[in-house]
Amino acid sequence: MEFSTIEIQKNLFYVGVNDRHTGLFENMWPLENGISYNSYLLKGEKNILIDPVHASCFELYLSKIRSVIGQDGTIDYLIINHMEPDHSSSISLLLNVFPKMKLVGNSKTAEFIKGFYKLDISENFIEVGEGETHKFGNFALTFYKTPMAHWPESMVTYYKESKTLFSQDLYGGFGTIDGGIFDDEIDYTAREFERARYFTNVVGKFASQILRATKKLENLEIKTICPVHGIVWRSNPEKIVKFYDDLANCRTKNGVVIAYGTMYGNTEKMADYLANTLSKNGVRDVRLFDVSKTHVSYIFTHIWLNKGLFLGSASYNNALFPVMQELISLISTHKMKNHILGIFGTYAWSGGGVKNLLEFAKNNTEFDFIDMPVEAHCSPSYDDLQHCKTLAEEMAKRVLA
Ligand code: FEO
């Protein structure tokens, strides 16, 4: 089957694929809007593939490659900017089809190729170093290492002649490419939350390394950004750079997220009271999440985007409500800046919910903690709700300050 080819610019083709069948990215994060694995093909004296795709999409991928180079054409080089298997799992399949293809990466790339795929690459691996420019046929490409954005071997490739950056995971997002692949062909704001959900859950832990990578690249003249997930940015590449910069710096909005774990609705009563008081005190964006109903990846993104956070938990077998445990584990590993934290909950026997949330607050000192926890016995009394009111008033004051 032949596909109509998508030419990004002269001799540069989009050969990426959409994945609408995988349920969970990294077997953890729901893909309700799917995901794209982008791959790019430079066609010239030598044919160069930049970043492969998930092996499960290989048949379609190969058809797209063939549409550009023809049935008798070959791929001479495969540039591997990132080794996470959502991209690298098709390397062996590509080598089966194009056995003379050279693999291009850095020293850490080589370690991962051997580690994941047990390939002998002693004869077909070209190692590139920081800032080096290599000629592949008529194309000169420059490589910059961007360690931990997303993995240790992550690097980007810059094609100076057309001022194009192949940025691997950097500047990517969840969501398939439906129709137009360029930022000027679609309403790119429609997938903004999915872009944020990808950032916060998948690469957000490495926010400081992402800022370092962006800083390293800031002096390059960039007209087009080709990431490995999501759309190609050719009209407003600065939009996605700014979007990532805002997220990585935790430039939060004046909203409050209330995430709670409840069994019989008593902790939820407190959450509602807090929400109502926030609203009466001028907070316009208040979001309540029952952690048992909404996947943590969505709650976590809303938390990242908003300045205020209330965590509430019922006690469950003298411990934290188990689903809440998953959420606070995620928050703990990401060390978010610019957030204000308040705590509430209920107990019936000897506690465990609020006690563990207080432990969380003690261990996560990057939060501005409002040290006025409210804990109700079984269900909130009038006095408990008055304490919730005071707590929410203080949260509103700090958030709107
Ligand atoms: Fe899209 Fe870190 O892999």
Could you walk me through the main structural features you see in this protein, from its secondary elements to its overall organization?
- The model has no long low-confidence stretch (mean pLDDT 97).
- The strands form five sheets. The chain has a seven-stranded mixed beta sheet with strand order 1-2-7-8-9-10-11. Strands 17, 18, 19, 20, 21, 22 and 23 form a seven-stranded mixed beta sheet that branches. Strands 12-13-14-15-16 form a five-stranded mixed beta sheet.
- It is elongated and about 80 Å long.
- The protein is α/β, with parallel strands linked by helices and 401 residues long.
- The chain has two domains: 6-249, Ribonuclease Z/Hydroxyacylglutathione hydrolase-like (Metallo-beta-lactamase, Chain A, 4-Layer Sandwich); 253-400, Rossmann fold (3-Layer(aba) Sandwich).
- Helix 1 (58-69) links the parallel strand 8 (48-50) and strand 9 (77-79).
- The chain is built from twelve helices and 23 strands.
- Residues 82, 84, 86-87, 150, 169, 228-229 line the site of MU-OXO-diiron.
- MU-OXO-diiron binds next to helix 2.
- This is Flavodoxin.
- It comes from Campylobacter hominis (strain ATCC BAA-381 / DSM 21671 / CCUG 45161 / LMG 19568 / NCTC 13146 / CH001A).
- InterPro entries: Flavodoxin/NO_synth (IPR008254), Flavoprotein-like_sf (IPR029039), Metallo-B-lactamas (IPR001279), ODP_dom (IPR045761), RibonucZ/Hydroxyglut_hydro (IPR036866), Rubredoxin-O_OxRdtase (IPR016440).
- Residues 256-401 form the Flavodoxin-like domain.
